[in-house]
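Much of what follows relies on a compact textual record of a protein's fold. Each token is a code from a learned vocabulary of local backbone shapes. The record below shows the convention in full.
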Amino acid sequence: MKLLEHYDILFQSLKETNNEIKITVQDLSEMLSCTYRNAKIILRKLEEQNWIEWKPGKGRGNLSSIKLLKDVDHLVVDEAKSMLTPTSIDAGINLLKKYGVKESVQREFVDWVFHTYLGKQLGPEGGKLARLHFPSYRPLPVLDPAKVNRRSENHIMRHIFSTLVTYNQENDEFLPYLAHHWEHNEDYTKWTFYLQKAVLFHHGKEMTAEDVRYSFIRHRENRSAYEWILDGLEDVQVNHRYTIQFVFADTCPSFLYLASSLGGSILPEDVPVTSELPVGTGPYKISENTEDKLVLTVFSDYFLRRPFLDEITLYFFPQLYDNAADLQSVSNYEDMNFYHYPYQGRKVQEFKKYTMLDKGSKLLTLNLHKGILAENAYVREAIFHFLSPEKLIEELGGSRFKTASRILKKFEEKNQERSVLAGKKALAASGYKGETLTLISYVGAGNEADAKWIQKVLRTKGIELELKFYTYTELHKRELHKEADLLLGEQIGDESDVYTYLSAFRGNHSLLKHHLPKAVNDEDLLSLENKILKQNGHIHLYRLNQFAFYHHDVKGVSFNALGWIDFTKLWYEA
């Protein structure tokens, strides 16, 4: 057992530092689960390290005394720092987790590792390592488009999978990707795609039309997040090893938007889909995915240009997420984005900062399908007036940045006028008798803090909420249109405005879809949005301010619509 482990046992048992504690060697030997002789040896070594003061008792009946001089967390940090190397920080990080170092100390260590230590390391040949290490707030055990449609997972999956075509936001056009050419008939009921040859999956098999057929058809199983993109699809026909045709019952002019989404990701037919270690044809493959870290390794046989970075590692520190703990031990701090989620940390002057207003928004939906809110427009009106996004942003802070009132900012006109007085009048006219409404959300992404704020505000106005939180996976197994009066979560934005609206109103994992009225005309989605907003069917709360800190020699930094940095564009200046 290492000396640090012995000291930790004493620290956890005695729970005091810089105070003399009367004790015997025999007591210590029992505490350390060792012999009397070994206890004396350990005490001597601890004294040599200046970790303790030991005063042997003199004379019969006089107890010895021990004084612990060091905080064990800081000793662990010192040990962790000594274990780091430019190519591996795992041992140091695992040591902190093993000893359960308190959050304020972990925060300082995380800042030092990712903002100071790694930034100064050179590669084996004198140049910058072609690696990117950074912390994130939660593990990503599910990386299968059929099972998840969530910001962080979507970003990682974009680097693992490829689609038939890709959407170019700058020119508002579709470009070849796995398919080098495509065509459709006059009424858009038949779409034919011609595949690139010699495209390899991560496990070495060539991609063919059979894989494409399998990848789309599988969305009809197990309540896929993307089952909706197959609405109206009658058949998928393999015409040739590299030719595939999609046949629809009715016209489908928007199919390219669907085919270019993550739902159109192509997976191999010959291997089982594993959520944590999926196989695709993208520029990176998953080499490790655990509760502690996720490792992306460059796919050397990628069919397009090879990315510049060889490896990307995310380390997960869920206990530091949205941390509002005491910061007295951290000098010169500012609100820093914990790589896409709120984090309190140390200000690093030598870093560049890149910011972008998030395209998506935090969304609260009110059930227009069933229950009290569906039947009582006055209660919905009252909730709208009582909830002020401006106050939510002001009081909760973090990266909550700007109020939102529409799915896309470009369609917002002016701030929606709210009045507590109007809310009180609406509630009085509603006949509401204090029935408890249920607000359901998923764990993470600030949902807990937002939901508790909403609950507190509405309670002061006479509306009682019960809060229920589920994991993201469990949430989408439930009958939310029956169970939830209100749903809280993120409305994700996409590079394509058209696809953003399609997924918002039709997507299986869309909060809006669960609470839409029983009969809606969804042909004109902008009109549908206006109609639902006038009925107070959903309330957009805020948009995040996405930002990143990086060294001056990191180039190619740009955000995608998900608010993440595109890893394929990053490179180090020599």
Q: What stands out?
A: DSSP finds 19 helices and 24 strands in the chain. The first strand starts at residue 21 and ends at 23.
